[in-house]
Amino acid sequence: MGFTPKRRLAHILDSLAPPVESVGSLTLGDITYEVPVSNNPSRLPHSRFKDLLDVEDPVNLDNLHFMLQKYLLGQDIFLVSQPGPYARRLALTFASIINSEYEIVALHRDIGETELKQGREIRSGGNLVYVDSPAVNAVKHGRILILEGIEKAERGIMPVLNNLLENREMNLDDGTHIIHPHRYAQLDASRDGSGNLFIPAHKNFRVIAIAAPVPPFPGHPLDPPFRSRFQARFVDPVAALLALCAPPPPNTALPDLEKRLRELILATQYASEARDALSAVSKSALPPFPQTALQKLRALVAAFPPLDALGPAELARLVLTLHPALVFAPLQAWAILSRQTEEAGLGPLGSPADADESAGGSAGLLGYTLTAITRLTLTTATASFTHPRRGEVALTVPAGPAPLRPYPFPASSSPSGARSEPFFAPSPRFVGLLTTLVQAHALGWDASLVPPAAPATASASTSTLVRAFGEVLGYGHRPHLESDAGGEGGMEAVHLYKELGGRELLMRRRILDGGATTWEPSAIVEAAWAGRLVHLSGLDVIGPTAGALARLVQDREVELWGGKRIVAEATRDELASSNDTLTLAHPSFRLIATASRSLPLKDWLSAEHANMFFPVLAQPMARAEETAILRAAGCPAPAVERMLDFAERYRASMSEDNVQKSRRLGTRSLVRVARRLRIGHGVQGAGNGGSRDAEGGAEDNLRALLSRTLLLEFLPAVERMNVEQLFDDAGVARGGPAHYPNPVVENDELVFPGPSTSGGASYATRVPLFNIAEDPQGVQSHVPYMDHFYDNSLQTELMRDLAVDLELLGEHVVLLGNQGVGKNKIVDRLCQLLGRPREYCQLHRDTTVNQLMFTTALENGVVKYTDSPLLRAIAFGRVIIIDEADKAPEHVVAIFRSLAGQNELTLSDGRRVRATRERPSDIVVHPNFRLVLLANRPGYPFLGNHFLQVLGETFSAHSVTNPDQESERTLLAQLAPEIDEELILRLVGAFHDLRKGYDSGTLNYPYSLRELINLIKHMQAYPRDSLGDALRNVFDFDVYKPETIEQLAAILRHHGLSVPNLGLAAAREAAAKKIQDVRFEPKNTELGEPKEGEHDDKEHSGGNKWAGGTGGRDTAGMGGRGGYKRLYKGGDIKQVSDELKAQVPDHVREKAREMARQELQRRLEELDMSAGEAAGYGQLLTATQAHMVSLYDLLEHLAAKEEERVWVKRQTDGELDDSRLTEGLTGEATVYKRRGMEKPELGRPQIKPKRIRFVFDLSASMYRFQYDGRLQRSMETAVMLMETFDRLSRKEKYVWDMYAHSGDGPDIELVDALKPPTDMKDRWKVVEKMSMIPQYAFAGDYTVEAIEKGVKDVAAFDADDWFVIAITDANFGRYLIKPEDISRAMRRDPKVHTALICIGEGAEATWIPKSIPGRGYRVMNTADIPTVLRSILSTMVDR
């Protein structure tokens, strides 16, 4: 091929170019490489020496040799490694030894094309510029590009790089074309005729990709075209574990403890690996230890010399620190490990519960206790530890610049800013946790406080612990100076929420005056520069996105905007020559992560998390510590004892299944109850000076306050009964009824007169009115005005409780209740009486965090923010009502938790909400600010989220119910004095029974005060309308639910309310009478024999030829006469007169009846059923009709809820996304959002069916003792289940079967999961089988075996949730069934949710609820079996 003159000149110049300068030769085995000089030393690795791998290690050397081979061949490398820092450090070590510059991209779900190609920025003057991504910089400048976390990237993103990998080509948004260097050498010019710019891909550009293998680790599988462009290298997990572990000093033997644990960790790794198909099935249930386990063990042992043997509890704490996922691992895995520790000579291993208790008193890990912390330099301190047998250890640790809080703590004190911790007593447990945190800090690790594994426990003092840690090490807040923009040191709380992207964790966009765009550091990055302590609150909610911080946490390095990079170490010369692209992470910078507890541990406590942080298991308080805190709150000793007796029982009854529905009842909630008891009925408002005997009031009030805290009224029926039993067991007495007089305003106080009770003293509650001078503008414009409010006892009591919480105790509150019970009006009335300004904000499914903070507008190319009602309320100290809080996404509601709990919030525009001003831009929380969240009660039929778990215990909870009958009657009498009092009394009674029907599950709508008020208003305004007409306003929603209409009619009749027709009949009758009287007089009225008639698709009126017509004669139709059955084909119904109907002769009537009987018999023969069988099945069906409707509605709603859509961001069309307005200004395309199905988090399964097994007891005793109805109720329950699942529109969402056990065996099949009964005949056969088996069964019991088999069978199914619900009437004592047998069977597989309903003799076993808390139910009345099973299924499935 001939060369043009320009090509020839380029070739000559290239040959004359001086050779690349070398810094020396690198020899790896048989390869020698001349190491070139770097053109930009700031882009070289600046890792700490301890973070680079040992090149003398044979395994590291072998990996580096492979990488050099591929590098010299011009090939890209793919490192397949378990989660952890080894693979990244291997890549950086390789770049270091060949002196190669590098770029790195940490992949996560928010990475898009912009982050892999070019971003856009607007410079001053409005000029748009393109900014190269790290990937493009690497291509242009010949650097190594490290892509870490390939498995986390969204599908379809990585192919953006396919052409770059294959051909070294990429088209950039600024019009530049990167092409292969060989192709570029053949060009005559760098631009073509159209002006396109071509630049060569640098010959030294290489890619090193890193990913965890999928499976077994969570993530997206590799795209085959992407995978094919790499050369793979599997990183041996055992070698990685050893390589990350610093070797011991020369000529030093490993301590015996470390040596044995090291062997155990390596053996566990080997045992977890599948080497063939057989071992994949039979591999160990014990998951492998995290990659950093040996590294942590080596550092711990080196700094804190241990004894050769630890006690069982100490050993358990150490093992869980190294492998925190064992907290939620199956008991089988823990048993395996326990056996191995004994075989390894480590001694017995305590249980995970032992590790939660304060083993060793105030000791931290390895038996050491923190004794003192003293200042050494401005940035360091000396931490002193002691061991009872090993003596003293003193270590130099990083510290902040603030004065160190004295340590050891005084006997009683409180960390600064501890608003919700009124009393701080440093217990041995607390000192032990603090010691462990300081140990992790001394070893250079960031810590993660892992909450207790038990679903409900006492407080673990997480927030107090973080504050105390910061203050004893000089990270406390310093007085604010106007010139200080944050300064060095200090503590920073970053409250995380689900919407946060990986990039937002590190930096955020900003628009300057004039419209230019830039980036500014996040709070985490600012803290890294300044050496602050960062509290990452709620790290669990952001899931795998937390991995974006892995490099910063592990290596103190991270990439920022514009080529900036934080590094751990660099010389002054390197920093000076980097043009501000290199910055140093301050040595005092530390992170402490805590969890929100809104997600199960297994959903976020991953191997990646364990490798990033030093896990510290947060142990809950013991009873003595909790007692001291409650006594310090002013609560009388007897009340404290009873409160804790109940709390311990209640917490023990919690399981993973019901804790999502129930309140946890932690220490913070008990402190709130204690403070409320201290106030009692008689503690006065400011300046009153009254007092009373607190103990008497406490005893009266305790049950009511605890019930309110637990929202007892809204628990499922079965759980509510269990809690009531726990109250009785703990000796918490039930209080008597009381009447609450109307509040009055006296002398600048709102006075709630003392209630009238059946006995005991009664005292008024006085609450100061709002001081107008504190917010004159708010008083003028934001105090609610209500011209009508009808006072009643129940709502007055609630108003008083709210006033005490908001005004006297300074609490934020959440009000939950059914629709129409007056939540808004009660709060508005209270604000009106107090003269309290209030703001209002309503949430919905599309509410975002940004919308809660401010509204966004674009003016003249500049994004402007206007503060929201929430920010106004914070700044001016107003009450803000957050309405429909349960309708917003859970991550949006989560911000109220940090706001209420810590008075802290970080806004997306960089401002912060804080309790005190620390920076000029901070928004200070006004002391009068209060949050009032309004929401509907949890669970079906209200379509809200389970937001109570997200809120935790930061809010005082109040349940708002319909008034009692007397209060309701009084209210309605005030509203409509003209209506007869007797009628009002009957209506109130009827509505009271309607609500009881909803609570018992026989009705599926919670009829409220709102409906009753509207009914009374209608009757008062239109007295000529009948009661039936007025009731249609409420009941017409249910016209197509005949079973509901029948119950409504029965309740009305019971209360003497005569309503001739309800439902469809009433609607048709009213239409005929009131709107127009449509009468049809046929010309021919002669009657013949009843007949079917001919069928067609047309509408017919009159006549006797066509079937399905109206107003005819003889034929099957509607509105006519003489036919033998009704048949409707649509259209208007022409109704013949009653006179004509009455003229039908008797023989024609009898003929019609006979034809109807024949038709019914024909249908039964088709079903192969006799009339008696049909009647029997109908009787079973009728018995549970109401439960069936309720269960159907719930299951149908859940199936639909799984398909609810969410906002999917970074779309190229749809609605403009407010959070990406800046990107829109710069011209990015992905600035829209659309409704779509939410993608599951990494590690979460795709939406699959729920697998359910129902196990019935058909033993001989079921027949022998059937006089109590146990067999009949079981059959009714079976019919309820079969009919409900058959009616579902999304049958594929539930895979269910029914089995039975008897004395003959544990596995009698009733319904096959693959062939559920589809018609009545098949369902009747199931019922017949159930009725016959107990007749012929031998004596004996297989309850335990049936549950075990059910759990095993269900767990084997590929589902997204698994359930087994069993019924037994076994006499456990007679058949020698022990509590541990039942417990073992039900806990056989932790992923399977189990429940056991004990009836008959089984219900007499009082140990059942205690042995299997939250899973065992005693049902004394067999009539309750359908109710209980429906309630259990509802609770378990709707989690």
Keywords, please?
single chain; 1439 residues; Rossmann fold; 8 domains; five-stranded parallel β-sheet
Helix and strand topology:
Blueprint: H1 5-16, E1 22-28, E2 31-36, H2 58-72, E3 77-80, H3 86-97, E4 102-106, H4 113-116, E5 118-123, E6 127-132, H5 134-141, E7 144-148, H6 162-167, E8 170-171, E9 176-179, H7 181-185, E10 197-200, E11 206-211, H8 224-227, E12 231-234, H9 237-244, H10 256-272, H11 277-282, H12 293-303, H13 312-322, H14 331-343, H15 352-356, E13 369-375, E14 380-387, E15 391-398, H16 428-442, E16 447-450, H17 462-472, E17 491-495, E18 507-511, E19 517-521, H18 523-530, E20 533-537, H19 550-555, E21 558-559, E22 565-567, H20 572-576, E23 582-584, E24 590-594, H21 607-612, E25 614-617, H22 623-632, H23 637-652, H24 656-659, H25 667-679, H26 694-709, H27 717-729, E26 738-739, E27 744-746, E28 749-752, E29 756-757, E30 765-768, H28 776-781, H29 793-808, E31 813-817, H30 823-834, E32 838-842, H31 849-853, E33 854-859, E34 862-867, H32 869-876, E35 879-883, H33 890-902, E36 905-906, E37 912-914, E38 923-924, E39 930-936, H34 947-951, E40 956-960, H35 965-975, H36 981-1000, H37 1009-1021, H38 1027-1035, H39 1042-1054, H40 1064-1075, ...
Concise description?
With 1439 residues, the chain is α/β, with parallel strands linked by helices.
The CATH architecture classification of the largest domain is: 3-Layer(aba) Sandwich
Strand ordering within the main sheet: 46-45-44-47-48-49
Q: How many beta-strand elements?
A: 49
Low-confidence stretches: 276-282, 416-422, 478-487, 681-698, 1074-1078
Mean pLDDT: 81
Main sheet overview = 6 strands, mixed
Strand fraction:
15-25%
Structural class: alpha/beta
Tell me the name of the CATH class of the largest domain.
Alpha Beta
Number of helices: 52
CATH-level-4 superfamily name of the largest domain:
P-loop containing nucleotide triphosphate hydrolases
According to CATH, what is the topology of the largest domain? Rossmann fold
The helix content is: 25-40%
Q: Ends: how far apart?
A: 72 Å
Protein name: AAA domain-containing protein
GO molecular function, one term: ATP binding
InterPro entries: ATPase_dyneun-rel_AAA, P-loop_NTPase, VWA8, vWFA_dom_sf
